[in-house]
C-alpha cells in the first residue's frame, strides 16, 4: 500500500510539474519575442500563441525582422525570470519550409568564442524561434521522501480499522452512482456552467450535460488557459470508473466544442502530444 501511495503521489506531482513547466516556458518565450520586436523598434505587432510540439519542444512565430544578436541574452534572462534552469538548444527557422537558418546551444553563452552565427544579419521575412529543452531527470532520495513511509503506515492502519468496522455490514446489491458535489454557477466568456443542474448556457443556447460532460467542463473552467495533460484529465474525470479509455477524452472534448461553438470567446485547443487547454478571451 505504501508503494502504491508513493507511486500515485509521484505521478500526480509529475503531471503538475509538467503543466507548470509548459506555462512558464510559454510566458518566457512570449516575453522574449516581445522584447526582440521592441529592440527592433516595433512595439505594436501582435505575437502569435506559443506552440508546444512535445513535452520539451516549444516554438513561437515572429513575423517581423529581429536582431539575432539580441536573442541569446534576452532568452536567457526570460528563462531565469521564470526559474527555468534546464539545458536547451535554440533554432531560428524559416516559416515557409522550417529550414534552420541560425542556432546555438545554451552552453555557448559561456564560451570565449561566443554564440555561433552572431553578427550575421537576418533577411526580412517570417521566422520561427524554436527552443528544445533537455528532458528533466529526477532521482528519488531518501531524504526527500522520508515522510512517505510513516504516512503510508498510518493510512494502512486507518484502512484496517475501517475494514474491521465494515466487514460485517450487509452487502449492497447495487452500487449508487457517484454524486459530484458543486454548488456554484461558474461564468466564463459568454457561457456559464451550473453543476447542480448539469446545465451549460453558451450564447443563446442551453445544453443539458451528462455527468461526465459536466465534470470534464468543470475541470477545464477551473484551469482556464492552462495546458492539461491527457493522463491528468483521464484520472481527474474517469478514474472512478476503474477502466480508463484514452479515446474518451477526445470524444467528450468534441461534444463540448459543439456546445460551446456559439461563444466566440471560448475555445478548447489541442496541444499536440500533450493534452488540451480551454482558452477564454
TrEMBL record:
Leader sequence residues: none
Superkingdom of source: Bacteria
Key words, A-Z: DNA-binding
InterPro entries linked: OmpR/PhoB-type_DNA-bd (IPR001867), Sig_transdc_resp-reg_C-effctor (IPR016032), WH-like_DNA-bd_sf (IPR036388)
DNA-binding region, residue intervals: 183-280
OmpR/PhoB-type domain mapped to chain residues: 183-280
Protein name: Winged helix-turn-helix domain-containing protein
Originating species: Dyadobacter subterraneus
